[in-house]
């Protein structure tokens, strides 16, 4: 499962979704986690609010969860329509602590919200891999 973290420094969750300059992308499995990349968002001066939201959604469209400090209602609606679940955490939460917490949840019995996300991801994967064209 790929997870994005809204960050300005690659270390802490310290950004509002619409203003985040980058996303730390991690891959998590039941037994491990790894930082895949830091995806920087290009600063386009003339971009309106919807353009900012859309460019950020494009940057994380392969992720299942997005950890962030804050997200507006319209952005949250767009994100969830793309089957990405926004997870609000306190400002400055260390990314490595959030990753560790997720790993522990995956190894045990995940909370209902995470189990639902994982089930949806499995169904989507089965649909993509199970079709012949």
UniProtKB/TrEMBL annotation:
One Pfam match, given by its short name, reads: Nitro_FeMo-Co
Give the source's domain of life in one word.
Bacteria
Biological process terms from the Gene Ontology for this record are: nitrogen fixation
Please provide the record's keywords in A-Z order.
Nitrogen fixation
Residues forming the Dinitrogenase iron-molybdenum cofactor biosynthesis domain are 10-103
**Recorded GO MF terms:** metal cluster binding
For this chain, the family text in UniProt reads: Belongs to the NifX/NifY family.
What is the protein name for this chain?
Nitrogen fixation protein NifX
**Which species does this protein come from?**
Paenibacillus sophorae
Gene coding for it: nifX
